[in-house]
């Protein structure tokens, strides 16, 4: 009887979360079937696809009709209240969305629920700056699945181009580039940094083509030394990545310093407020945070699938 009462209370609380401002409730009997999250009774009877909060370790996620919500706001009483990151995790602390910073309390609540808006990275939104997105975003789950499957191949290629590299770490968090010629961001084109001994030595680009996700690793040359220098000079800061032409990859620090991965002229030299103009949630990256959060896959130095003859 006590278990049934507990299950009933949990269900009622979860279903009412969007209609009130109470603390999020969490599913205690859920299971993923064919890509959808279902709720079950104590006796194992299916109650249909699940809508509500789920807690995984210290993190919280929100599901709607069995699917995890990602990169979107969750509203209560018509007001922005929670933000779900691109991996679905409920935001806590300060994040950047639509060119502005928002601060959430330890329960993920904004504004009257305990948070408050922070300083603006830009006075205008993406749409007002003429920045648009295209393509179908590569999800965090897709990134993890591909990297786990291909990590030895990726690491082996990187080692061939950078002899002497030790353990290879492949980031599970990537960024898309903003194309300055038309101010678009291709969400189906994501770059994952690859680093060793806390130095970026290469990257692997994922791209969606004909419904499949393909990957291309790259390493060697002086370009990645520029990236390492940039992050060492801007600890704990998000860096904006843009493309200015086919062979001009730029990285812009919050103080508007431009780092050029390759030699050549850039059309952005005379533009003020470059970071505010081009920074979005899709093309920024914090190398320090990836290391701190251990959001990467490691391939030990002695692991390789390449036989040299």
Structure description:
- With 309 residues, the chain is α+β, with helices and mostly antiparallel strands.
- The protein has 3 domains: 1-68, no CATH class; 70-120, left handed beta-beta-3-solenoid (Ribbon); 132-299, prostaphopain b, domain 1, CATH 3.10.500.
- It is built from 5 helices and 23 strands.
- Strands 12, 14, 15, 19, 20, 21 and 22 form a 7-stranded mixed β-sheet that branches. Strands 18-17-16-13-23 form a 5-stranded antiparallel β-sheet, with helices on both faces.
- A hairpin with a 2-residue loop joins strand 9 (93-97) and strand 10.
- The longest helix is centred in the middle third of the chain and has 22 residues, at 140-161.
- The chain is globular.
- It starts with a helix and ends in a 10-residue tail after the last strand.
- The relative contact order is 0.10.
Quick overview:
Helices cover 19% and strands 35% of the residues.
């Amino acid at each position: 009887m006590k278990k049934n009462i507990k299950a009933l209370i949990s269900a009622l609380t979860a279903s009412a979360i969007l209609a009130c401002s109470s603390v999020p409730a969490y599913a205690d009997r859920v299971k993923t079937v064919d890509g959808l999250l279902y709720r079950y009774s104590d006796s194992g009877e299916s109650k249909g696809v699940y809508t509500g909060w789920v807690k995984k370790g210290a993190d919280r996620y929100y599901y709607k009709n069995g699917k995890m919500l990602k990169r979107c706001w969750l509203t209560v009483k018509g007001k922005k209240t929670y933000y779900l990151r691109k991996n679905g995790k409920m935001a806590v602390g300060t994040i950047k969305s639509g060119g502005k910073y928002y601060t959430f309390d330890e329960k993920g609540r904004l504004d009257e629920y305990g948070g408050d808006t922070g300083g603006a990275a830009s006075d205008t939104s993406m749409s007002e700056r003429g920045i648009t997105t295209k393509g179908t975003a590569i999800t965090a789950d897709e990134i993890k699945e591909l990297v786990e499957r291909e990590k030895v191949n990726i690491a082996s290629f990187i080692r061939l181009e950078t002899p002497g590299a030790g353990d290879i770490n492949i980031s599970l968090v990537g960024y898309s580039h903003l194309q300055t010629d038309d101010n678009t961001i291709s969400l189906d084109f994501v770059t994952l940094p690859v680093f060793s001994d806390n130095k970026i030595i290469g990257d692997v680009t994922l791209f969606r083509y004909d419904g499949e996700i393909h990957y291309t690793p790259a390493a060697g040359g002086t370009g990645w030394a520029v990236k390492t220098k940039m992050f060492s000079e801007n600890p704990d800061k998000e860096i904006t990545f843009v493309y200015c032409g086919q062979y001009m990859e730029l990285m812009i620090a919050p103080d508007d310093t431009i780092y050029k991965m390759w030699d050549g002229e850039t059309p952005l030299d005379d533009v003020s407020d470059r970071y505010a103009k081009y920074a979005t949630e899709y093309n920024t990256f914090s190398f320090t945070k990836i290391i701190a959060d251990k959001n990467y896959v490691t391939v030990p130095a002695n692991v390789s699938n390449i036989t040299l003859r």
